[in-house]
């Protein structure tokens, strides 16, 4: 498997449309997803930006996920909460400016997984076009 750092670099340098980087818990549940701002702008969600090269992290809470209520409570009480915008019920987006390098994005992702999910276990990630 490619390193997280190399997949983020690939994600950032690619001009392909509808590209997403997904992060999964060891039980297969999605922890978060990373998209390109220019794709998000086409979804009809009130989260558009002129920084088309920005990245967008999606954090979604769902009752069928492991420890969902606890995860949501940690999120609401965390310093991360103010960096996210509620875009739909139980769905939050964080914009990461186009000036953020791959290391900065990786640090944000790892921090979210640790702080929101209280998760230090193995997780997997995939880069796909949908």
Computed structural class: alpha+beta
**Sheet with the most strands, sense and barrel status:** 6 strands, antiparallel
Oligomer: single chain
Query: Into which percentage range does the β-strand content fall?
Result: 25-35%
Number of strands: 6
Outline type: globular
Alpha-carbon distance between the two ends: 20 Å
Main sheet: which strands, in order across?
Answer: 4-5-3-2-1-6
What is the H/E string?
Answer: HEEHEHEEHE
- Output mean pLDDT: 93
Task: Return Rg in Å.
Answer: 14 Å
Report low-confidence residues grouped into runs of 5 or more: none
| Secondary structure: helix percent | 25-40%
Number of helices: 4
Q: What can you see in these coordinates?
A:
This protein has 130 residues and is an alpha+beta fold. Strand 4 and strand 5 form a beta hairpin. Helix 1 packs across helix 4. It is globular and about 35 Å long. The model has no long low-confidence stretch (mean pLDDT 93).
Supply database-style keywords.
six-stranded antiparallel β-sheet, 130 residues, 28% strand
Question: What is the element layout, followed by pairings?
Answer:
Layout lengths: L3 H10 L5 E7 L4 E7 H4 L14 E6 L7 H9 L8 E4 L2 E6 L5 H16 L5 E7 L1
Antiparallel strand pairs: 1-2, 1-6, 2-3, 3-5, 4-5
Give a quick summary of the entry:
The protein has 4 helices and 6 strands; from the N terminus they run αββαβαββαβ. It has 130 residues and is α+β, with helices and mostly antiparallel strands.
